[in-house]
Amino acid sequence: MLQNDNSFKSASKNHEAKLAEQVGRLLAIDCQKSLKAVSGVRLKYLPARNRIIYLPVKTKMHFYVYILQSMKDFSFYTGQCEDLDYRMSKHFDGFNKYTASKRPWRLVYFELYNTRSEAIKREKEIKNKKSRKYIIETIASRQRLLRRSG
Q: How many distinct structural domains can be found in the chain?
């Protein structure tokens, strides 16, 4: 009876260990999906330690130039950033002093660049035009291009 009881405990511990490993892997996969590849982090489950670790992902960095349009007064805001999703959430949630007063906003245009200096140069080019007409033409040209290719 004692031998059967010990083997039951051993089998139970093995089952718990396997279950913990499966749960850890599922948790890592679920977290990985929510972190997205753009964030530069991936998760790895270490079953021996029953831990999830964060590993940096070597990805090519992209920088964005974007144009927002206020739905309140239809003005435009031009900016540049490295993480477009994060930056949009800051604008939409009112954490930017200028854009907070003109909410709600919508993203109407963006361009992708390989370096921050290219993105800054393009942002300054758009802002130096100081022309609503230029911004509208830029947005319209992108829409025409998308219609032709789509």
A: 2
The reply to whether 48 and 74 lie within a common domain is: no
Contact 65, 122 (CB under 8 A): yes
| Cα–Cα distance list, 49 to 23, 44, 57, 71 (Å) | 14, 12, 22, 51
Task: Express each pLDDT in 56-101 by its tens digit.
Answer: 565 667 899 999 999 999 999 999 999 998 999 899 888 888 899 9
76-86 pLDDT tens trace: 999 999 999 89
Spatial CA neighbour of 99 closest among 122, 78, 126, 130: 78
Do 36 and 80 belong to one domain?
no
User: Do 86 and 145 belong together in one domain?
Assistant: yes
Residue-number span of the structural domain to which 29 is assigned: 2-56
